[in-house]
Amino acid sequence: MQTLTPHVHWAQRHAELYLRVELSDAKVGTVCSIRTTAQGHGAKGDNEYEFSLEFLQPVRPEISHKSTQRLVDIKIRKQEERWWDRLTLQERKPLFLAPDFDRWLDESDAEMELQAKEEEKINRISVESRVPYLGLKKGYLFMYNLVQFLGFSWIFVNMTVRLFILGQDSFYDTFHTTADMMYFCQMMAVLEVINPLLGLVKTGFFPSMIQVAGRNVILFVIFGSLEDMQNKPVVFFVFYLWSTIEIFRYPFYMLACMGTDWKLLTWLRYSLWIPLYPLGVLAEAVAVIQSLPIFDETRLFSFPLPAMLGSSLSFSYTLQLYLILMFLGLFINFRHLYKQRRRRYRSRKRKVQ
Hints:
Elements: E1 3-4, E2 8-12, E3 16-21, E4 24-31, E5 35-42, E6 45-52, E7 59-67, E8 72-78, E9 97-99, H1 107-129, H2 131-166, H3 174-188, H4 191-197, H5 205-223, H6 227-230, H7 234-257, H8 263-271, H9 273-298, E10 303-304, E11 312-313, H10 315-352
Parallel strand pairs: 1-6, 2-9
Antiparallel strand pairs: 2-3, 3-8, 4-5, 5-6, 7-8, 10-11
Helix pairs in contact: 2-3, 2-7, 3-5, 4-5, 5-9, 5-10, 7-8, 7-9, 9-10
């Protein structure tokens, strides 16, 4: 049987050489640093194939190869980790040899790849050295999200049950039945502003601050300080929208702490907020507007002015400015959450591919 020469493609890195031999269903015989023989199906059918290469620099004796139904991959380690100007000792390239463009990198790209691997190795060592810290961090974040989930779940269930039993009458005493738990949850939420500053979470500081500060203004300043606001139906809608959003958000973060992804919960987390978040801001805006005449009448939190300018400046002017900032915050937070949603689904799509 005639011995033929197969087509061979090559590429290199600083430490290794890669040869791809175009032989299907090959049975590799001998592989050494300068000569390879195999029986397989090549460009001219089933034959014995052989090729030899005299490398530009010495290589290590241990050579690995892997045969598939379509080709033979050979990996050879260089004696010294350095970049070669060419593969063979002779300047003229053999006719059967060609670059492997699937693996081909120039020297600068190969150096960048090598540097990236070194950085990955350093990061892995760094992460391993921080395992106790990571365990504490995950434990803390899991417990925080669990406590918040339980708190908002209690509010949601309480309001839902009362709505079914009392109907519209439950609108008027929402604050008195759920305020204590809402106070607790919103005071705990201040940690969501602190966590990004400490590097515990990747969430941005400003989106968290805008959301937490906005809710606390509504809860403590408008509902908490004005008794006339506490019996209004708007309290029900604000609390119900807040708790509906959070009973899906906090379990999502709990599972993330455990490295688990539940597709339905992820979809709810990144889909329900699209209608609920603007509705929540709208309900907050209604609460602010309803409180304006009460602040004008009671002069609560008014700013004293010099006698020539008048007695005081009503706090309602501050709230009117706050209304503008509230809708600006809606835009910033909505944009931030939308980007998170797109990144999440792009990442999942890449994993599927």
